[in-house]
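Lab manual, section 2.4: Encoding a predicted structure.

Procedure: take the sequence of the chain (421 residues), apply the prediction step described in section 2.3, and record the output as structure tokens. A sample record is shown.
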Amino acid sequence: MENFAPAGNVTQLSLLSRYQPLIGVRATERLLRKARRLSGLKVLHVNSTRQGGGVAEILSSLTPLMNDVGITTEWLVIEGSPAFFAFTKDVHNGLHGEPITLTPASISLHREVAQANGAQSRFSEYDVIIVHDPQPLPLVELKRQERWVWCCHIDLSAPDPDVWSYLAPSVDRYDAAVFSLPEYAQPLAVPQRFIMPAIDPFSLINREISRSESGEHLERYGIPRDLPVVVQAGRFDKWKDPQGVIDAFCMASKEIPATLVLAGNTAADDPEGPAMYESICRSSGERTIIIAADDPLLVNALQRRAAVVLQKSLREGFGLTVSEAMWKGRAVIGGDVGGILHQIINGQSGFLVSNVEEAARHITMLLKDPMLRRNLGRRARERVRRHFLMTRLLEDWLDLIAGLTLRRRPRSSAQELATSV
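Recorded output:
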């Protein structure tokens, strides 16, 4: 099992104070009041990869922010064999609705790997353990007095029945289940909560960079800047429909010349990524550039330089790359699915599309209309500021943790004395 990420020593308010100009004094003070109620709690996040994908992106910012407001928080990444991650990728696809055959051997492997990761754990040292997605789900079998929460970041609007039937009994052993959207709710015996993800505006992938710096990153990867750039960034995953993006771009570029860049990586827990990358590389060319790199500054530069950003997903739990591009004031075209529906207000802060032809028409329209791009981008950035910054995500988690723990925490002697007086 990979080592625990240390809580770290940070100056009080050093992180939260950076958000105050964006969220205001009242929101900042409200967060601090809520955090003070949970003073002394220890929280552990558990997932299956430290880089690649939205969950790792969230935890790399949420963990230090929780520490910053006084809640001791650590992040544990489980390890597994290729066979384990092949099975959990099947489960991932099944939750997206793909029919999957589960074998007794693979189910046993899932539990055995979880048990092996938990064998030397220090779970009893924590008050709340938050397990993300299906890979570490069976760890709940080690539950004792801690409060356990399962957080699923996958689109569960129509899961394969067999896959969900396999997972549901484990989910019911948790104290609560968290989904990104109400439409992902499932028949469960435990309370369900709905928390949409959010972005960190100060991370490498989102922080402000100059036009000259962004140009240097594009030049380093040989990306031409003589024509407008159309970008899709994210994992190489069939549910992100990279081939559909290429097809839409080819249709649009017949009317107006441009350059397409597909930039992505393959998460350590996604064995299908390399095959998908190899597949779409067959469509690369002078004006269709495909880059496999774990380089957040490249994604930052691409999104800031893009005339149009796509996230043409076929299924999408949330889609952080949408909010990332919207925060940078870009005109975004997203698949009319899942969490993208909650980020983009169609025609106001971006466009939603259902097929390749619609995507091509909107690419063409946006490339021809700079004023429309600016107006969409301005409204998009404001929408993210109001709804999809990391401080809102922090507050949602503080509220959930308070509901799980405050009724159970013993009062200190000081609190008892104050009550008696």
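Check your result against the sample. Residues 370-387 form the longest helix (18 residues).
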